[in-house]
Amino acid sequence: MSQMALTFDDLPVHETRPPGRSRLGITQAIIDALRSQGITHACGFANTSVEVDHPGEQAEALFRAWVGAGFELGNHGARHLNLNRRTADEFLADVDAASSYLHERFPGAPGAHFFRYPYLAEGDTPDKRALVREAIAARGLKVARVTLNFGDWLWNCTYTECHAAGALERLPILEETFLDAARRALEAARVTSHALFGRDIPQVLLLHNGVFTARMLDRLLTLYRELGAGFIPLDEALADSAYDWSHLTCHEPRGESGYSWFHQLANARGVAATLPLEPPEAEVRRIRKEVKEGTTPSPR
Ligand SMILES: [Zn+2]
Question: At 48, which CATH number?
Answer without folding.
Answer: 3.20.20.370
